[in-house]
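Following up on my earlier thread - several people asked me to post the actual chain instead of describing it. Fair enough. Here it is, all 63 residues.
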Amino acid sequence: MSCQHLVCAQCAHPVIEGRCALCRANRERMHGHGFAGLSPALIVTLLVVLLFAALALRHLGGL
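Reply from S.P.:
Thanks for posting it. Predicted structure:
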């Protein structure tokens, strides 16, 4: 979703301009992304994969 065509109910200006605090907050919420542009779900998935890889390497190293 894009805020390009949305009009703020508080200041009646386009949200993309960020003229009031509500516009700026909603623009940031809509365009804000997780760490390094990754979604939080992807970050959690990557952490789980890294955990399993570390456990597998530890298990193989003990053999």
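Residues 34-63 form one domain. That should answer part of your original question.
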